[in-house]
Amino acid sequence: MGTIGGEEMARWEKDEGGAKEERIVVSVRMRPLNAKEMEKSDPSDWDCINDTTVVFKNSLPERSVFPTAYTFESTFNSLHYGLPHLPILISLLLGDDQTEYSGVTATRDESTTKEPKKLLFQLSAESMVSAKHSLDSSIFAYGQTSSGKTYTMAGITEYTMEDIYDYIKKHEEREFVLRFSAMEIYNEAVRDLLSSDGSPLRLLDDPERGTVVEKLTEETPRDQWHLRELLSTCAEQRQVEETSLNETSSRSHQILRLTIESTARESKGRDSSSTLLAAVNFVDLAGSERASQASSAGNRLKEGCHINRSLLTLGTVIRKLSKGRTGHIPYRDSKLTRILQPFLGGNARTAIICTMSPARSHIEQSRNTLLFASCAKQVAINAQVNVVMSDKALVKHLQRELARLEHELRYPGSASCTHHSDALRDKDTQIKKMEREIKELMQQRDLAQSRLEDLLHAVVDEQSSRQWEDSSQSSASHARGECEDALSISAASAIAYQIPDFYSSRFDVSKESNEQSKRHIELPDKMEPPRWSISSPTLYEPIQQQGNEDTEEHCKEVRCVEIHALSTTRSEEFNLLLNDESESDLLPLIDEDRLGDPAPGSEGDAHLRGAVEQSIDIETKTTDNIFKPCPQELNSVQKTMSSRELILTRSRSCKASLMNGSILSWLEHVEQDNKTPPKIFREKLPGRPEEDERRLPASDCDVESEKLSAEVTSSDMPKTETVGGEVDDHVNASFLAEDDRQKQLPSDQEAQGVLSEGHGAEKSIENVGKDAVLCSLESPSRWPLEFERKQREIIQLWHACDVPLVHRACFFLLFDGDPADSFYMEVECRRLSFLRNTFSRGNVGDLVASR
Ligand SMILES: Nc1ncnc2c1ncn2[C@@H]1O[C@H](COP(=O)(O)OP(=O)(O)OP(=O)(O)O)[C@@H](O)[C@H]1O
């Protein structure tokens, strides 16, 4: 009998198999009509028209969804040879003109030109046991009952076994060891076919070998004849019963396994020796059957149910595998698929021979078989050579691996470790970068939110400002005689609310050039700037140098309020007054400072710089810009503010001020709309009288601030603690908790309200009596612009009402924030500190005198 030679295999691998992805090899074998079918004159509807195609010979009804032709790796019809056994067919296909098997002589005819080489290769010993192709492989026979599975598998098994022994004989340089085992799955119970004990065997899950059958007998055949004996034992032990379709119907799935180990003789016993291991499974499945066709009942029916169920699972597994290895594949749904899992699209070469009957009466079953075959041929496999190391070789290999790992542990700086640590460092850098980006994005988001709020509130402010302006016209004349003071205050207070970029460009010069103005407010240089005030970046170098991220965060919460306390009505008078002054004596005001330098060394320059400096000092030390002016200035302001128009010209976060030009221009537009005095007026504001400067008292704001901050940031500070307290008879700047607010309010008798609710400031002015003005200032960090608006309303009321000024110098800052919020507490305390320093001691006297 011929076989596929090495050259032929190499050619096949090169031409067809080697370069391509391996898939299950599927062949279809069609048996001839059997005696019963011919008796019934059951026509033959199927034919193998060539070596790869099976066709449905009859015409299909219209709209039929079934194909008429199926192609496979090989198709053959043993009728062509008139011979029962595949080995003879194979022999003929391989070129023998005439061969003999089991006493039957076969002659080659024209049909023998068919060459199902892949199948033949897979059935060959070369594919199973050679050094190059030593792979696990399995050959299935699948088909309906009585289609010829057992008939085909018997031939294949015999042929392959014979070929294997033939190969062994030819390859004496290697030593072969064969082991044989056989089992059947009958009614979902696994039985050993080499043992007379029919008790079912258990399936075990081995982490290395997969599913193994416990206590399965494994014989080592002495020679080919011994193996034949074992095969006949299996056939005897197998469950075979007669059914209406098959006199010798196999009622179980049979799995014969031949394991072949081969070792090169010359390397045997050496450390480097390795063993090739291959297992071949010959799987003869039980046939699917329709109970009606098989006329089965009782045990046969039960067997048929088990067979059909396990075949259904096999079909599902194959179908899923054919679509790729995605999702769950139900190998464990039947014992058959569980045992065959490694051979179904795993690390094994697989061939399936689908058997079918051509009879019309079995057309449905035949179609199912062809459908199964079509799916199976799509299943990709990944067969790999199994190499088993000798124990010594394995020990050596493991020792080398252990030494390598120990070396890595001892010397972390080695190549691989360095590589890992570099990779970790890169990842860390990436994480930090991403964190920074997230932070920036969050800041931008907050900024945008803040801008939106600003815009909304600015619109509201503008409206309320105009209302107030109308209501305050009546008291405008009250301050006519005070224009000079007002101007000086304007120079000091209005300029104080310059935009941050102005500060940054001007402060250094003014700070050096105007010591006098510094004394004016007496906010000492040593005072540490508040963390949240970075509106003037160049002013406080330490903050910038520290690059404190918290500072930046807080910055965006703090608003720089720029209020121009200017009187529209007065501005015209001022213009008239100022027209007489020489231009060199005039102090440029806001716009000049913002837009250009005053004349260097001029008096106006000196005054302006002093005023700007002190204003900057104040602003950067508090957020309560409203109360920035010194008492003398405030005194003057009282005289003029009644007719003043308070204009919010800048209200935005410090950061936003540097970034958003469009808001700036918009605000400037608003400023113009709100009757900002003509530029000429602001440019020609006279210098500040010296006596005003002399009247300014010293203030130890820094000490107060530190003290207050220390008090309120203390973790154990009770919520109702009063921070501050009375400063003198006239001034009471208290920091109250919400709960204690009512206790501290003036009594009803004392509180003779002069400003009724509904004045537009009811939320800000909680109560106004002859003895007190109670200001409720909410957290600036939450609603910055709302806070600013409230402060402006308070100032408006302050200057508009008829209550003696001293009585209004009583402030309660209502604390309704969270005491645990340290930032909030710090802001509030600094504001309180400022109030106390502004309205305490000599300032109060000034205020009284001025009124
Ligand atoms: N190619 C063939 N040429 C001639 N006879 C065949 C061929 N295939 C099968 N037969 C005959 O058909 C009958 C049924 O064959 P076989 O027992 O192999 O079918 P089966 O598919 O194994 O059935 P079951 O699933 O019931 O076990 C047998 O008598 C067998 O000799």
UniProtKB/TrEMBL annotation:
Domain Kinesin motor as annotated: residue spans: 23-379
Biased composition (Basic and acidic residues): 513-529, 675-697
Gene3D superfamilies the record matches: Kinesin motor domain (3.40.850.10)
PROSITE patterns given in the database record: KINESIN_MOTOR_2
Region named Disordered: 513-532, 675-725, 740-762
A molecular function (GO) term: microtubule binding
GO BP field: microtubule-based movement
GO cellular component: microtubule
Annotated keywords: ATP-binding, Coiled coil, Microtubule, Motor protein, Nucleotide-binding
Keyword ATP-binding on entry: yes
Family named by the database record: Belongs to the TRAFAC class myosin-kinesin ATPase superfamily. Kinesin family. KIN-7 subfamily.
Protein name: Kinesin motor domain-containing protein
Lineage: Eukaryota, Viridiplantae, Streptophyta, Embryophyta, Tracheophyta
